[in-house]
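We now fix the convention by which a protein and its fold are recorded. The integers have meaning only within a learned vocabulary of local backbone shapes. The record below shows the convention in full.
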Amino acid sequence: MKRPNVLLLSAAAALLTLPLAQAQGMAGMDHSTMNMSQMPAMDLSGMKKLQGKAFDRAFMSAMIPHHQAAVDMARAVLPVSKDATVKAWANAVIKDQNREINLMTAWLKANGGTDAAMAKMMAGSMQGMASMVKSSKTPDVAFVQGMIPHHASAVDMASLALQKGSHATVLKLARDIVKAQAQEMYDYRVWLGKRGL
């Protein structure tokens, strides 16, 4: 099986996220009282210690609640959004990430089940993200600003999966996440830039 070019994908993701100052992630944070720009880098040290099937299960188990947080943010912005582009992005997040959640859930069922500790850690680190959008006076901006570090942390995890994963489904999903979410981060940055943000 031919593996994706990890260095090229990682370099592309790094270039797209450079304006964010540093990789911004969510591990162990309560987001209800903070601005997305204050979030520190996500701790991937536990995942970095794993290899092969154990890594694959940990990655898929962590990515499900990570994706669910994006879906929740998208659902929070839709009823209050005043921007057609943001509405389109939110609908795309719901569609694409729910599809990937279903894929990951089915894969885990067939490959040893969920890594409960990894899923719990990630679910805990995602708390409060949708409430940041709901409580914002500018929910469209809050959604777009929030999705950038959220996507950046997904790209970080997916880039690690391209280095350490072993199953073809995991590798393809990781490649797809890097490709799609790096492009979306770029689009979000352009949208914010046009608004002087």
Q: What stands out?
A: Residues 51 and 103 are 21 Å apart (CA to CA). The chain has a mean pLDDT of 84. The helical segments are 6-17, 45-48, 52-77, 84-110, 116-125, 129-135, 139-164, 168-194. The chain has eight helices and no strands.
